[in-house]
Amino acid sequence: MADTLFVAGETxxxxxxxxxxxxxxxxxxxxxxSAACGVSAHVTVLYPFLPADRIDDRLLAELRELxxxxxxxxxxxxxxxxxPAVLYLAPEPAMPFTKLTEAVVARWPEAxxxxxxxxxxxxxxxxxxxADPRIGDEIEADLLPRLPINTHAxxxxxxxxxxxxxxxATTFPLGR
Length: 176
What we know:
By secondary structure, the chain is α+β, with helices and mostly antiparallel strands. Helices cover 29% and strands 31% of the residues.
């Protein structure tokens, strides 16, 4: 999720990675705007998704069916990566996340990843939003000896923002 002020009615689709919290939690609390708004460690499938007022029972059923067509998968986070002003953990394999994003966008092309700001989908778990490379270096030095983090991705969660906080609206199991 981007370093921005969040808007009431925004939604996101994410894969939660609770196993990473002991490693990244303290850094996210300080340097990730989504953590300050109640979002746990995650890999984003799609942000922003559709406005909350478009989410109805039919759309939820479509999402449930879409995610049921994708099998759960094992993920390992064993290295850091960087975007301008972002330090993240890189998932391996990344392709299952990319396929989830592509499937949602194929069904709802009006909701491109990150509002269409970027040409390439790069799955990641944001740890810190900082333009200061020294802070990024400090965080990375702390994280690397504590990796890898292994997890089982078995669900996608729909988050909804009220303008101040994000809450989980529902969770869609993968493969069922």
